[in-house]
Amino acid sequence: MPKRILQGTVTSDKNEQTVTVLVERRFTHPVMKKTVRSTKKYRAHDPENQFKIGDVVRIRECAPVSKSKRWEVVTEASA
Question: Which segments of the protein form a coiled coil according to its record (predicted)?
């Protein structure tokens, strides 16, 4: 089964080897037929501490690294 890859913005890099990534999802509401923006935060593993606040990155599913980390940063997304 392929691993999901999401794109988002780094909102926190305070923890060692961890970044918090805000991922935005857009979808059409089933009843209102209006485009809705939904956001969710993911904690991702960043072993070299190379990503800073404001960077747009891609994250990929992985085996659990810690209690809250199930994602890893793959690369910085090209703008």
Answer: none
**Whole-angstrom Cα distance, residue 70 to residue 52?**
19
User: Domains in the chain, start-ordered, CATH in brackets?
Assistant: 5-76 (2.40.50.140)
In a 3-state reduction of DSSP, which class is residue 72? Answer: strand
Q: What does the pLDDT read at residue 2?
A: 85
In this structure, are strands 71-76 and 35-45 parallel, antiparallel, or unpaired? parallel
Classify 49 in phi/psi space as left (phi over 0), alpha (psi -120 to 50) or beta. Answer: left
* Neighbour-count burial of 44, counting CB atoms closer than 10 A to its CB (0-12 exposed, 13-18 middle, 19+ buried): buried
Distance between CA atoms of 43 and 68, rounded to whole angstroms? 7
